[in-house]
Amino acid sequence: MAYVTEQKPADYCNYVGGEWTKSSSGETLPSYNPATGEWVGTAQNSSVSDVEQAIDRAYDVFQKSDWGYNPKRRYEALLGFAQKIEENLERLATVLTREQGKTIKESRQELAGCVDTLKYFAGAARTVFGRSVQLEPGNFGVIAKEPIGVVGIISPWNWPALLMIRELAPALAAGNAVIVKPASLTPVISVELFKLIAEVPQFTKGIVSIITGPGRSIGAAMGVSKKIDMISFTGDTSTGKTIMELATSNIKKLALELGGKSPNVLFADANLDKAIPLIGRSIFISAGQICMAGSRLLVHEAVKDEVLARLKQYAENLCVGNGLLESTDMGPVINQDQLELVTEYCEIGKREGKMITGGHRLSGGEFDRGTFFAPTIIDELSPSCRVVREEIFGPVLAVQSFANEEEALAMANDTDFGLSAGVWTNDLNRAMRMSKGIKAGTVWINTYNKNFPEAEFGGYKQSGLGRTRGVDGLMEYCETKHIHFEVE
Ligand code: NAD
């Protein structure tokens, strides 16, 4: 076998006030490889008092340092961090795959995305422009953009490196102090990235901290803290609703990147040779554990049989296994709980629809060491079925068919979510009508999963609040101030 299965698990500390610190309770948080069950490392299981101290520290540093007034320093710091990740990319990709389970190819892609994002926002740090406006004779205003203060970033486990950096980069570029609370299932890759931050001298000491531990205690403590002025949360919609309630403590600014149930809408005139592998990839990438997964396929009835036969073949040809092998196309789901949840949805699918392929845990040999699930396609589901309506966060594609464009649009929008969608057609007019009609933050035409730091991303409806990436993504992390001048 070409990969190393066992490595000595390392211990990871919090990084607070520019120092490596341990949890005051002495409790720790072990992290395991979902492909093998091996112990990957141990982080701090921090307490509420640990996070309160970290918040006090960040608050002081924000008040006393020149970070918020020094865009060039911020540019150099973010660029330095990007360069460190580039130098360590292959090592970090292995850490990410060992902890999260995704394929090594996806890990490289995720870390390359981190580098690109940091470089983009390094430049953007020097473009936090306001404007001036003449208001009446002798009166003009400066509309200034300012950092908000201390920002708490709470991130998920599915793309733990990129989704942390996607928020960290603009928050720091805008001049804020930041405290990150990574997901409890992926603390190792998160702290590994902070070890690189610690090596970049341009970061003001204490301006950026990471503290690991359970969301329900320390994440919630960040949610209610009056010294935190904004929470940027990426995660489940139900947790997002809890964060909204917690944030009422001091009317915090919120940026919420939540769940999805995104459709691929496939018309009969589409280029099926291009569409089928990309639709397959859109749901089976990261074992379906991706917010923008194309988890619903809406297909025109004229091509449905052909499309299903070809998608079945695509799914059955995927090589599922340990992500460290270069030949692996799909890794495990994150843990036993997730495996059970996905199995439960598939049982519903079997009862209420027609199983085209998959629908079960993979077992035997190396599969028994991990939490592997077969790529699954379920057809003939009613619009009210839970498999169609709820985010499963696993490799499960729900298929429905339509007779015409009007019906396709209504089906695409028949969801509580609105994160993304794919439209497949060679008719430009139809593509325009559909992209205008679909209520989602991103609509891809004849492609899927294309994301760039310069293009905004976020959700309509229950998929979120605000936008990440791009100019709007930077502005989320700014306050706006009107400074008024009257000339005598
Ligand atoms: P989750 O909501 O369970 O956890 C996310 C983070 O919130 C973790 O760090 C967790 O510890 C913390 N948390 C949990 N309870 C908390 C509480 N009461 N107070 C404060 N923090 C708390 O989500 P997850 O399972 O880690 O991630 C999967 C979800 O994230 C899916 O719904 C997925 O669609 C969504 N997601 C959205 C995007 C996006 O950009 N829209 C990207 C990736 C993932």
Task: Summarize the structure in words.
This protein is α/β, with parallel strands linked by helices and 488 residues long. It folds into 2 domains: 10-258 and 463-483, 3-Layer(aba) Sandwich (Aldehyde Dehydrogenase, Chain A, domain 1), CATH 3.40.605; 263-452, Aldehyde Dehydrogenase, Chain A, domain 2, CATH 3.40.309. 38% of the residues lie in helices and 22% in strands. It contains 15 helices and 23 strands. The protein has helices at 48-64, 71-87, 89-100, 104-124, 160-173, 187-197, 215-224, 237-246, 272-284, 304-317, 336-352, 386-389, 405-413, 428-437, 470-475, and strands spanning 10-11, 14-16, 19-21, 28-32, 39-44, 131-136, 139-147, 150-154, 177-181, 208-210, 230-234, 253-257, 263-266, 296-300, 354-357, 376-379, 396-402, 417-418, 420-424, 442-445, 460-461, 464-465, 478-486. The strands form 6 sheets. The chain has a 7-stranded mixed sheet with strand order 15-16-17-14-13-19-20, with helices on both faces. A 6-stranded mixed sheet has the order 10-9-8-11-12-22, sandwiched between helices. Strands 1-5-4 form a 3-stranded mixed sheet, with helices on one face. Helix 1 packs parallel to helix 7. The longest helix has 21 residues, at 104-124. The termini are far apart. Mean pLDDT is 97; it is low at 1-5. The structure holds nicotinamide-adenine-dinucleotide. The site of nicotinamide-adenine-dinucleotide has 30 residues, from helix 7 and helix 8. It holds the Pfam family Aldedh. GO terms for molecular function: oxidoreductase activity, acting on the aldehyde or oxo group of donors, NAD or NADP as acceptor. Residues 20-483 form the Aldehyde dehydrogenase domain. Belongs to the aldehyde dehydrogenase family.
